[in-house]
Amino acid sequence: MTQRKYPLTLRDVSEVSGVSEMTVSRVLRNKGDVSATTRSKVLDATKSLGYVPNKIAGALASQRVNLVAVIIPSMSNMVFPEVMTGISQALDETDLQPVVGITNYLPEREEKVLYEMLSWRPSGIIIAGLEQSEASRVMLANSGIPVVQIMDIDGDPIDAMVGISHRRAGRKMAEAILKSGYQNIGFMGTQTPLDHRARKRFEGFTQALAKQGVEIVDREFYTGGSALAKGREMTESILTRSPDLDFIYYSNDMIGAGGLLHLWDKKIDIPSQVGLAGFNQVELIDGLPLRLATMDSCRFEIGQTAAQIIAVRNGLLDLPLENIVELSPKIEFGDTLLRK
Amino acid sequence: MTQRKYPLTLRDVSEVSGVSEMTVSRVLRNKGDVSATTRSKVLDATKSLGYVPNKIAGALASQRVNLVAVIIPSMSNMVFPEVMTGISQALDETDLQPVVGITNYLPEREEKVLYEMLSWRPSGIIIAGLEQSEASRVMLANSGIPVVQIMDIDGDPIDAMVGISHRRAGRKMAEAILKSGYQNIGFMGTQTPLDHRARKRFEGFTQALAKQGVEIVDREFYTGGSALAKGREMTESILTRSPDLDFIYYSNDMIGAGGLLHLWDKKIDIPSQVGLAGFNQVELIDGLPLRLATMDSCRFEIGQTAAQIIAVRNGLLDLPLENIVELSPKIEFGDTLLRK
DNA sequence: ATGAAAGCGCTAACAG
DNA sequence: CTGTTAGCGCTTTCAT
Which residues of B touch A230 (CB under 8 A)? Predict the structure, then answer.
């Protein structure tokens, strides 16, 4: 159980067990036939030594790395943890493991993280969004491994893509809002250049309104800080500036929740006086006085499907999967959007 | 820019640039002196080929892996993202990179993740908590690399530890509550066997109360679901059951926020009629009608310090750091705890 | 069912 | 400043 020569090798196990390195390797990988006697001799030795195989060497020799690189902009977002859950669950069926890289929405950072990841020769890449820098696209295209772009399908994939149409999502929400009779509509969201998906929802939203001759009355954008507090403050300020607003569409549930709290506080009736909707269907805000209208962004399923595509491409799973998978988010009306 | 033979090697770059593999390697790692001419020849070749070095081979040859394994129970928790930020920021000064493994509070899963991580021979390990299984402790102790246990310091470290005393945190909060004149105190938290740190806070809390002859009037535990919703429901139920409660201590800010919303809703005056306190100082809930009393858990600093210890041990940073670092959380009174 | 030889792609160490 | 040699610790392939 004790040990001194730190990086133990197969050779050490071989010597202690009196079995060749090759056979030890077979036992450890459950590969090929090994007699029960030999097997237990080896297992005893590894256990008593506390041997941990060196995957670096194994990967180099076998030219196979059971890692899937996952590159996402942020983790604190509520949205990616759920994507990760989907990925992990799907990969648990295989011997693949996810490794996460965070870009903070910075293209230069994305390039660096991607380069770093590729240098470990993973078995696949899952990367958020369709908007990579030219350099990143080249790396991905030349990587020789399966690449799945996730979250968004409004654009052309490098290889495979799984996600929802954020433009369509914005459009659907606009249509539902208009159908419910709201007319004076405001928008509140993150500073868009950073977040392409929020931008696309906004574009789809305004286009669908325009189609029915409606234009956004007011809008406000924020960056940084607590989304809940921002939603609160900004909702107050937008309603002060544009008191005739009867609906506010938020680019995510957290600022929407802030808005909800503000209106609740001010005794403004929801949804008759002012209606609200967010995006993402985040469980975190379950428990507010009202359930915010929102749209499921299919995060779990996106992660799961993306991981399955990687598994299939590696011959680890047999499933009929397209290279382009569009999921369909549904509107949750909750308590803040009249249903008509 | 285009390429066909997928895993490009140093040899390919060497051939294209007319420079030996060794020198190409030097250029790519900025190691040793290389003339400007040679350097640019090499850089041109790598760029035009789109060569990405193979770290697997590099790590095997150099016996050095610039990875730091970070093993934590969960990511969706609000607490670990901030720890990760601290780790990332500290490691950014070095060439080390964090790799995260998630255990979901399952010891068996922790063992597996740890084994997997160790098999990549990282330059250090940062692992949450002091309560590992015997097998995990043996692996850690025998790994031959720096091990930093984080979050908690109520116990003995395997190697190094950075965190706060959760027992003391619970005690301090109890003292502040009593000092403010509250007498009928309730507790609400996660199912404790899973979460040792919440348990220790609870223990410290009740001990400090006992010292002043006070006993908890009521308590309730939950598991799973939206913490906000649980906080709301459970606060209602505990107050129904024990209407004389004048203070509730929550094991985290999210359920505390749920309780806050319930009381707000019921027009129960905070903090005069009922006082509240949570734990963690989570930015996410900034924006509630009142600021919940809480305690900073020093998450960022914990991550940062742990990473610095790893960097120092690897000779990548020169800083005088103890092996045991206790940080001191401070009470934030907010609006829900009388200050007397 | 087990072993021996060769080599994965890179870098340490030494030459020059 | 540049090149050569010898592995790093495994696994692949081929023998036995």
Answer: 287
pLDDT for B194 equals 77
**Model pLDDT, residue A51:** 94
Asked if A246 contacts A183 with a C-beta cutoff of 8 angstroms, the reply is: yes
- The confidence band for A5, taking pLDDT boundaries of 50, 70 and 90, is low
| Rounded Cα–Cα distance for residues A316 and A75 (Å) | 28
Rounded Cα gap, residues B33 and B10, in angstroms: 18
- Choose between B225 and B169: higher pLDDT: B169
Bridge partners, B151 (sequence order): B163
Q: Which amino acid is at B110?
A: E
Superfamily name with CATH number, domain B54-164+301-326: Response regulator (3.40.50.2300)
Query: Domain spans of chain A?
Result: 1-51, 54-164+301-326, 166-297
- State both tokens at B6: 């997928």
Q: State the pLDDT at residue A131.
A: 95
A60:B55 CB<8 A = no
pLDDT of residue A340: 79
Predicted confidence (pLDDT) at residue A20 exceeds the cutoff of 90: yes
Fold type of domain B166-297: Rossmann fold (3.40.50)
Cis peptide before B7 (omega within 30 of 0): no
pLDDT at residue B224 greater than cutoff 90: no
For the CA of B116 and the C1' of D15, the distance in angstroms is: 34
Closest CA to B257 of B297, B221, B223, B290: B290
Type of residue at A214: V
Cβ distance B228 to A285 less than 8 Å, yes or no, reads: yes
Is the predicted pLDDT of residue B264 greater than 50, yes or no? yes
Chain A positions in Cβ-Cβ contact with residue B76 (cut-off 8 Å): 78, 81-82
Query: Would you call B228 and A287 a contact, using CB atoms and an 8 Å cutoff?
Result: yes
Average pLDDT, chain A: 94
Q: Which residue of A has its CA nearest to B226?
A: A284
Contact A274, A266 (CB under 8 A): no
Q: How many residues in chain A?
A: 340
Query: In the structure, how far is the CA atom of residue B71 from the C1' atom of nucleotide D10, in angstroms?
Result: 26
The chain B residue lying nearest A287, using CA atoms, is B229
CATH superfamily of B1-51: lambda repressor-like DNA-binding domains (1.10.260.40)
The confidence band for B4, taking pLDDT boundaries of 50, 70 and 90, is low
- pTM, 2 dp: 0.94
DSSP B92-105: TTSS-EEEEEE-TT
Nearest chain B Cα distance for residue A207, angstroms: 32
Instruction: Note whether B54-164+301-326 and B166-297 share their fold.
Output: yes
Q: How far is the CA of B62 from the C1' of C11 (A)?
A: 6
Chain-chain contact of B138 with A1 (C-beta, under 8 angstroms): yes
Give the gap in angstroms from C-alpha B6 to the nearest C-alpha of chain A.
6
CA-CA-CA-CA torsion for B54, B60, B62, B67, nearest 10 degrees? 70
Please name which of A334, A327, A272 lies closest in space to residue A83, comparing C-alpha atoms.
A327
